[in-house]
């Protein structure tokens, strides 16, 4: 299915993210495999949101105190991110959404793709436990807003309803 077929002309960010969430539910509601669901979630964001050069997940490895690359769309990325480094590390460490208008001004920024200019990271927290982060990068400074933070938080809540996180982290 082409990007144009799935696109809607959203008049507001809320309308756009409602549409994205409806598409996400359709993709993952009957699929039990958590890795497949995260892969489709990353692909959906990359397909439907404008002006992205990377969309994906980093998953927590508590034994290493680090995030490890999960399903994504975009150029190859950094494989491991310590919790004391980068925007993803900050989101996992603090449990707070990170909206960075200019990644080059962020202390400790990790440049996996030199083309990235702005970033938003949503922590994946379930029952007080950090499971990982959802990370979106853009080649445009100031691409992400508080409305994106709200919309992507809703997207993450949808993931929490359908992704079998325990299966994903079993044996780790």
TrEMBL record:
<protein>
    <submittedName>
        <fullName>GAF domain-containing protein</fullName>
    </submittedName>
</protein>
<dbReference type="InterPro" id="IPR051330">
    <property type="entry name" value="Phosphatase_reg/MetRdx"/>
</dbReference>
<dbReference type="InterPro" id="IPR029016">
    <property type="entry name" value="GAF-like_dom_sf"/>
</dbReference>
<dbReference type="InterPro" id="IPR003018">
    <property type="entry name" value="GAF"/>
</dbReference>
<dbReference type="GO" id="GO:0005829">
    <property type="term" value="C:cytosol"/>
</dbReference>
<dbReference type="InterPro" id="IPR000614">
    <property type="entry name" value="FRMsr_CS"/>
</dbReference>
<dbReference type="GO" id="GO:0033745">
    <property type="term" value="F:L-methionine-(R)-S-oxide reductase activity"/>
</dbReference>
<dbReference type="Pfam" id="PF13185">
    <property type="entry name" value="GAF_2"/>
</dbReference>
<feature type="domain" description="GAF">
    <location>
        <begin position="33"/>
        <end position="169"/>
    </location>
</feature>
<comment type="similarity">
    <text>Belongs to the free Met sulfoxide reductase family.</text>
</comment>
């Amino acid at each position: 299915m082409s990007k144009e077929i799935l696109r809607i002309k959203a008049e507001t960010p809320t309308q756009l993210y409602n549409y994205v969430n409806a598409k996400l539910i359709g993709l993952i509601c009957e699929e039990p495999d958590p890795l497949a669901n995260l892969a489709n979630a990353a692909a959906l964001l990359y397909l439907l949101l404008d002006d992205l050069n990377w969309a994906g997940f980093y998953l927590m490895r508590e034994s290493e105190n680090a995030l490890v690359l999960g399903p994504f769309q975009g150029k190859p990325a950094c494989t491991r991110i310590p919790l004391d480094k980068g925007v993803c590390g900050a989101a996992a460490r603090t449990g707070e959404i990170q909206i960075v208008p200019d990644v080059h001004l962020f202390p400790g920024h990790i440049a996996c793709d030199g083309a990235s200019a702005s970033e938003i990271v949503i922590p994946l927290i379930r029952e007080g436990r950090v499971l990982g982060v959802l990370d979106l990068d853009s080649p445009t400074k100031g691409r992400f807003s508080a409305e994106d933070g709200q919309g992507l938080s809703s997207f993450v809540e949808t993931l929490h309803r359908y992704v079998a996180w325990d299966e994903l982290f079993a044996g780790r």
